[in-house]
Amino acid sequence: MTHEEMQQLLRQKPFQPFRVFVSDGRAYDVRHPRMTLLSPVWINIGIPAPDLTPPVSDHSEQVWLKNIERVEMLPPEMSLVKP
Predict the structure, then answer these.
(1) DSSP-H helix ranges across the chain
(2) Which of 28, 45, 58, 59 has the fewest CB atoms within 10 Å, counting from its CB?
(3) What is the rounded (10 degree) CA torsion for 66, 19, 17, 78?
(4) Residue 72: which H helix or E strand, with range?
């Protein structure tokens, strides 16, 4: 995946949550664009704490963009972005 492709996913209006599948078998849900940090070669994905409202990141995982095999869109109700 390229930086530009990921940037488009993060900037879509309204935001649509998505799942990133990595070549080593891991998968991460991106449920809010502000819980990410995108560089030219990697994305840092914030993993939300399960019991905090509003959602905050419990920890984050760094994923190299070149290792992303595919992205799958998730249902809008999985988004942490509130209208």
Answers:
(1) 3-11
(2) 59
(3) -160
(4) strand 68-73
Residue 67 region, left (φ>0) first, then alpha (ψ -120 to 50), else beta? Answer: alpha
At residue 65, what is the residue type? L
Residue 39 in domain: yes
pTM of the entire predicted model: 0.89
Q: Which domain holds residue 43?
A: 3-74
Q: What's the rounded Cα separation, in Å, for the pair 56 and 50?
A: 9
Distance CA 44, CA 63 (A): 6
Is residue 79 in some structural domain?
no
Which pLDDT does position 51 carry in this prediction? Answer: 78
